[in-house]
Amino acid sequence: MKKTAFVCFQALLTFLWLAGCGLASDQELLEGIKQSRTGQQPHPLPSSKLPDLNEEKAYSLQKLLAEELVSSGLPISGYKAGLTTAASQKRFKAKSPVLGPLFKPGELGPDAVVNSKDYVRLIIEMEIGYIA
């Protein structure tokens, strides 16, 4: 099964990037993101669909999307912080770090084999975490 762990996080981050596409309502945007999760299709940047997208609205949409995904049976298994350095915030014109949920189906165990063909655009980051 193909997995995408950071789609909700993407909704929050992408207000920082610029692109040009047709406009969409908030719900159309969320539906497009949900469809891209299951079909492994790339999704246009949310800011290209909602030109008035700002950090507050991005968090609001992220919350709605997370609630819909949890209601459909995808539990949240953790959270991801991003833009945690001054340099990354400057690069993406952010005023502070950002945070978003990660979902259980996106988890990979210590013996997992990741095939890049299973992803639209695989990006691997080195992270440090802990289990309490």
Q: What attributes does this structure have?
A:
132 residues; alpha+beta; disordered N terminus
Alpha-carbon distance between the two ends: 29 Å
Low-confidence stretches: 1-21
Beta-strand proportion = 5-15%
Question: How are strands sequenced across the largest beta sheet?
Answer: 1-2
Sheet with the most strands? 2 strands, antiparallel
Number of helices: 5
Average pLDDT figure: 77
**Radius of gyration over C-alpha positions, nearest whole angstrom:** 15 Å
Coarse structural class: alpha+beta
Count the E strands.
Answer: 2
- Name the helix and strand elements from N-terminus to C-terminus, one letter apiece: HHHHEHE
So what's the overall shape? globular
How would you explain this protein's 3D organization?
The chain has helices at 7-13, 26-39, 46-49, 55-71, 86-91, and strands at residues 76-82, 98-103. It is α+β, with helices and mostly antiparallel strands. A two-stranded antiparallel sheet has the order 1-2. The model is unreliable at 1-21 (pLDDT under 50).
